[in-house]
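Postdoc handover notes: sequence design on the structure in folder B. Input tokens:
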């Protein structure tokens, strides 16, 4: 296995797979670390200069199974030992198994971090102009929740004694303006 074939395989998994060398800006010796991303998260890490191993993400039970089945497995460098495993290319792991584990890592990350698309959404109401509500009136706020729903809520002003602080007063003021 060579670096070009491995890189082509990782990039062929999907159109959104990108490669970066993100660690060189922190420490110069890590400039040769190539990381493959899907949906903005790492799924595969390899050293370009020392192409002897690859780090892939896997479930903890899968990592235990791989460690029992193969001897050319080691701890990942600077990654969580619970979710990452380092596979040596020159050991007893066949290339087909390495490719399968890279694909499994890609699928795991994609499934875990892909945005969940909702079939519906709540449309926020249009904000009221200050001419209607006044400067001390109700202020419109939009809050994006973690589940990608848009919620609109209103916050009462600090000055409760203001004429414009109640929606009925604002309607009266509007009728006076017309």
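Designed sequence:
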């Amino acid at each position: 296995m060579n670096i070009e074939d491995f890189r082509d395989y990782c990039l062929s998994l999907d159109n959104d797979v990108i490669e970066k060398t993100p660690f060189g800006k922190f420490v110069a010796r890590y400039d040769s670390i190539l990381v493959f991303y899907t949906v903005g998260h790492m799924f595969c890490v390899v050293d370009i200069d020392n192409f002897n191993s690859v780090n892939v993400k896997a479930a903890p039970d899968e990592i235990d199974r791989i460690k029992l089945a193969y001897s050319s497995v080691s701890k990942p460098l600077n990654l969580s030992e619970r979710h990452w495993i380092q596979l040596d290319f020159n050991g007893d792991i066949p290339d087909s198994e390495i490719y399968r584990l890279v694909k499994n890592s890609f699928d795991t990350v994609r499934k875990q971090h892909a945005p969940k698309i909702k079939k519906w959404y709540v449309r926020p109401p249009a904000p009221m102009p200050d001419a209607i509500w006044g400067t001390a009136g109700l202020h419109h706020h939009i809050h994006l929740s973690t589940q990608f729903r848009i919620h609109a809520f209103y916050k009462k002003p600090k000055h409760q004694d203001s004429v414009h602080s109640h929606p009925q007063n604002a309607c009266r003021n509007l009728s006076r303006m017309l």
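Context for whoever picks this up: The radius of gyration is 27 Å. Don't rerun without checking with the PI first.
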